[in-house]
Amino acid sequence: MQTIKVGLLGFGTIGTGVVKVFQQNGDLLASRLGANLELVRIADLDTTTDRGVQLAPGLLTDDAQALLNDPEIKVVIELIGGYEPARTFVLQAIRNGKHIVTANKALLAMHGEEIFRAAEEAGVTVMFEAAVGGGIPIISAIKENLGANNFSALYGILNGTCNYILTQMDEEGAAFADVLADAQKQGYAEADPTFDIEGVDTAHKLALLIGLCFGTRVNFDQIYTEGISKVTALDIEFAHGFGYKLKLLAIGKKDGEKIEARVHPTMIPEDYPLSSINGVFNSVRMVGDFSGPVMLSGYGAGMDATASAIMGDVLAVARDLQSNIGIRSPALGCPQVQMTSCEIKPMDQVVSAYYLRFMVKDQPGVLAQIAGILGNHEISIESMVQPHRHAAEAVPIVFMTHEAEERDVTAALAEIDQLDAIQEDTLLIRIEENLE
Q: 115: Cβ–Cβ under 8 A, 6 or more apart, which residues?
């Protein structure tokens, strides 16, 4: 029976999960592949920490070059994370004719074009199912099963930390800071959660999904990115009152020759399927011209789910190696030469309905002032909530608007926030009514 040798760069939590799959399901992998998959080398700077798995002597090394230059290793799993040295190691492995499996969405969002082009020139594959949605088979579904479709839109709940925080705030009425601290204690949030709660992690994943669905390159810096740190339990309560759930949503839409690419807190109708995705779960909803809406959900992170996706990619590469196939499926579903460069629609041109929360002095005339400025900027009010007067220093007034262009809303809020009655910057949350 043929043996296909694999190397692993990075031996953290996910790397440990990969080792467990090799150890626990090695026979299963061999039976499904008709060949042996052998993990022959692991490279990590830390060679002393106990990861809870037993390794054969000599398997773990701090010498990445020994792995990258080993001619017998055909597949390299990159789980270092970040930009460097991951980029340098991946490109070196490609030059050495090795196929790549990675979970590194940040690396591919920033340097994907360079890496994918190098892989095509070298005749090797880059697989990254685990980079988006953890254990959910999103990438393979788009590239393979849904490959006959023109996609018009995609919507994603792509960060388990944010989804957990918003779910807890919803169910318990707790403050953002308290839920974040609890999430860190339970291991759902990093000690430095900035990439998660400010939407950066979600934007990395959206960049890859846009390339897959729309066949276009996207400059990561052009993706509008806004996190959840300004959202309060009060906003979630108001959302329920209007029939919405609040989610950190990744949105990609075709708009003529332009692409909308944005990540931000979003209110979606409570009866929509994405509204039911709670806790650490992730989900992606795609709309194809022949498939119609397709939604995939599951665990978006975690050692086991992510290791499952990684090993699925390893199996796919190993099958190609058995058949002496070069690049059966390009990284983004089509060759780099076929990728287009669509313009990203500027955020100030996006049209949406809006939730606007103003914190104001409880005094006569404020409501009329705000409504007048909105009207002057051609922003139509659909509904409004003003709680009963009380002795608090600042009280909320909430407007739900009809669809308006973002530039008009931004201009109106800049004027409103200068009013003496306004006690803090206005909170704006966009509304998506039709996820079809």
A: 87, 90, 91, 94, 100, 107, 108, 126, 331
* Residues whose CB falls within 8 Å of the CB of residue 123, separated by 6 or more in sequence, listed in order: 97, 326, 327
CA 43/CA 371 separation, integer angstroms? 62
User: Which CATH class for the 3-134+303-338 domain?
Assistant: alpha beta
CATH 3.50.50.60 fits 348-431, yes or no: no
Residue 200 has a pLDDT of 96
Distance of CA 409 to the CA centre of its chain: 27
pTM for this model (two decimals): 0.93
Distance CA 19, CA 13 (A): 10
How would you classify residue 131: left for phi > 0, otherwise alpha for psi between -120 and 50, otherwise beta?
A: alpha
Buried b (16+ CB within 10 A) or exposed e, 170-197: beeeeebeebbebbeeeebbeeebebbb
What is the reported pLDDT for 190?
A: 79
Residue range(s) of every CATH 3.30.360.10 domain in the chain: 139-299
Residues of the chain with pLDDT under 50: none
Q: State residue 389's pLDDT score.
A: 56
- Give span(s): CATH 3.40.50.720, the chain: 3-134+303-338
Contact indicator for 285, 432 with CB cutoff of 8 Å? no
Active-site positions read 205
